[in-house]
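Propose amino acids for all 238 sites.
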């Protein structure tokens, strides 16, 4: 009887371990380590985000399901491979749409995915100090912040934030021939969002010598991207 109890306990343990490993991609490391971060190239970091988004779209996400279990593994240190500037929109969760493990990426969230001095400082820490190999400026479809900028909305502290998106509005408006130039025109809002992402990527290179040098040396890649809130797909601007 004792042998049966022991055997049954061993089978339960093996089953539980197998389920845990399967949820994390089998033999893949549970979380990023100093060693795995050091070995990863910027191109590999970008591919990990692409692969994670593909799993998210297909409904086969496996990294994120053990996010809480991984908390103890990252408590003493973090070694993210990416830093993402995304919008505060409640429908855009970087951890979910890229199927990320705990500790995989820094996520700076701000309306309209703008890059100001504070965000730049955060990105400099993420890369130069913490070792992230990839910076992504992530816009999204039907962005409320972009819509506000398109309408030149004035409201408290939001006024100054939306003013940083106005250059994108003005750039798109110069040659616009496809209907109204306001938040009621989805095509205009989409074009402004994409232009804003491109301008924010340029702003990182222009305003941060620290990051520009890392990119020049091939240690970091900076890309723009957009998230479609209807399909879940992320398209990278490369």
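Proposal:
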């Amino acid at each position: 009887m004792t042998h049966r109890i022991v055997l049954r306990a061993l089978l339960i343990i093996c089953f539980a371990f197998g389920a845990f490993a399967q949820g994390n991609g089998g033999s893949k490391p549970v979380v990023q380590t100093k060693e795995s971060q050091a070995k990863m190239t910027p191109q590999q970091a970008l591919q990990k985000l692409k692969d994670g988004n593909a799993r998210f779209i297909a409904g086969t996400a496996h990294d994120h399901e053990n996010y809480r279990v991984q908390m103890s593994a990252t408590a003493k240190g973090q070694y993210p491979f990416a830093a993402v500037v995304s919008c505060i929109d409640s429908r855009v969760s970087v951890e979910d749409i890229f199927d990320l493990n705990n500790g995989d990426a820094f996520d700076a969230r701000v309306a309209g995915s703008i890059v100001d001095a504070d965000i730049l400082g955060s990105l400099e820490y993420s890369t130069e100090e913490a070792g992230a190999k990839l910076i992504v400026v992530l816009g999204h479809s039907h962005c409320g912040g972009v819509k506000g900028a398109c309408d030149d909305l004035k409201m408290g502290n939001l006024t100054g934030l939306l003013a940083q998106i106005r250059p994108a509005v003005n750039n798109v408006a110069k040659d616009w021939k496809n209907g109204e130039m306001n938040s009621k025109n989805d095509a205009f809002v989409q074009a402004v969002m994409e232009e804003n992402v491109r301008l924010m990527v340029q702003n990182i290179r222009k305003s941060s010598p620290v990051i520009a040098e890392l990119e020049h040396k091939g240690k970091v890649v900076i890309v723009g991207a957009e998230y479609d809130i209807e399909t879940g797909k992320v398209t990278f601007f490369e």
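The chain has two domains: 1-29, 31-237. Residues 9-29 have pLDDT under 50 and may be disordered.
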